[in-house]
Design brief:
Oligomer: single chain
Structural class: alpha+beta
Largest sheet: 6 strands, antiparallel
Strand order of the largest sheet: 4-5-6-9-8-7
Number of helices: 7
CATH superfamily of the largest domain: Chorismate lyase-like
Radius of gyration: 21 Å
CATH architecture of the largest domain: 3-Layer(aba) Sandwich
Number of strands: 10
CATH class of the largest domain: Alpha Beta
Shape: elongated
Number of domains: 2
CATH topology of the largest domain: Chorismate lyase
Strand content: 25-35%
Helix content: 25-40%
């Protein structure tokens, strides 16, 4: 067994978390992604130069996240039927915190910010002047691999500088907007629909085939005065997500 990564014992990241990240990457690649048995704890500990207890702690965390399964007398395998990611429609504002509560700390796989002409659907939703220059932010997120990507367009009347978006450091987008603009983001108008993946979907979500449906979530964001702030379109792998909705009488 040869691993492409190694443990950094001088890192501030705990050893068991480093081991967990290494095993997580293993799960994404053949032969383990196709269901082959993972090396046992003793083998992994020897290869990585850590204790068996460290490996066991990493394995227990992956088991808790439903990313691996243990089969009696057979070994440990990638969970091909891991539970979907549940996110609530009632509180889109804190998606990252929602994922952390589920022990799924999402990574940012791609980040791009650019100017784009306001036209077609975006122009209709934001009701901005046609062909006006607006900021477009594209982000691809996921746990072990890309699970969703979001394209966000910001109303041209907002006093935003494209340089503030560069570097991919904005984790809480709407908190950033509130602090920057001195506003309160109050509500969103939403549409959700299903479709088969386009070539763009397959590119961002690293799909080789077009047989995995995509959930498209469109959000028109308003501030406390009803002003349109942003229009976001999220593309979610339908086999990975469950949208939770609480409705009161």
């Amino acid at each position: 067994m040869e691993l492409n990564q190694s443990i950094d014992k001088n890192s501030s990241t705990p050893l068991h978390m480093q081991v967990e990240n290494i095993i997580s990457d293993m799960l994404k690649k053949e032969p383990f992604s196709n269901g082959e048995k993972l090396p046992n704890e003793i083998e992994l500990a020897k290869e990585l130069g850590v204790s068996r207890n460290t490996v066991r702690k990493a394995m227990d965390s992956l088991l808790h996240k439903n990313l691996i399964i243990r089969k009696k007398n057979r070994g440990t395998f990638k969970n091909q039927n891991s539970f979907p990611i549940k996110t609530t429609l009632n509180n889109w504002y804190s998606f990252n915190e929602d994922m952390k509560r589920q022990n799924r700390d999402f990574k940012l796989f791609f980040y791009d910010v650019a100017f784009e002409k306001c036209k077609d659907e975006v122009q209709k939703k934001l009701q901005c002047q046609k062909e006006a220059s607006i900021i477009k932010l594209t982000r691809v997120k996921g746990y072990l691999e890309p699970d969703l990507y979001v394209k966000s367009y910001f109303h041209p009347s907002l006093e935003l500088n494209i340089k503030e978006f560069n570097g991919g450091k904005i984790r809480q987008l709407y908190t950033f907007l509130e602090n920057k603009l001195g506003i309160t983001i109050l509500f969103s108008q939403e549409e959700i629909m299903a479709k088969m993946p386009s070539n763009e979907d397959k590119k961002y979500l690293l799909l080789e085939k077009d047989d995995v449906p995509i959930l498209v979530r469109k959000m028109l964001i308003h501030d406390e005065n009803g002003n349109k702030i942003a229009y976001s379109i999220g593309y979610y792998l339908a086999n990975k997500f469950v949208f939770d909705l609480h409705i009161s009488r």
